[in-house]
Specification:
Number of helices: 4
Order of helices and strands: HHHH
Distance between the termini: 29 Å
Structural class: mainly alpha
Helix content: over 70%
Number of strands: 0
Mean pLDDT: 97
Largest sheet: none
Shape: elongated
């Protein structure tokens, strides 16, 4: 097996990548006029979840690692906010919203558990 970076070993990072794929699939439903506004914001928030987990894994102190994990959590909540707005605008269905809400809830629990672990080392 080839070398694995420390973030690749994190289940929460792997799950966050799945969320990005699911998000990109959902965004295919959006109108073209949202491409450079709401769609762009949603993509950045979704990608930021996994990116901050990866970047945090490179930090040498537990406090720094926890800081990036906190940023990841913030991006996850930002994504949820954007999805509520998307629902309000009629771009996604209530079913779509609930699927993401469940996935975001589960991922947020994993991120918070990681953060608590980092702070308690």
């Amino acid at each position: 097996m080839s070398y694995q970076y420390s973030f690749e070993k994190l289940t929460v990072w792997r799950e966050s990548r799945k969320l990005v794929i699911l998000t990109y699939e959902l965004l295919k439903k959006f109108p073209k006029e949202e491409l450079y506004s709401l769609v762009s914001q949603i993509k950045r928030a979704a990608i930021s979840v996994s990116a901050n987990l990866a970047e945090g894994s490179t930090r040498t102190t537990n406090k720094d690692q926890a800081h990036f994990t906190t940023l990841s959590f913030g991006s996850l909540i930002e994504l949820m906010n954007h999805l509520y707005i998307s629902f309000d605008l009629g771009y996604i269905t209530e079913e779509d919203l609930n699927i993401f809400k469940d996935k975001i809830y589960n991922l947020s629990n994993q991120i918070n558990a990681l953060r608590n672990s980092q702070l308690n080392k």
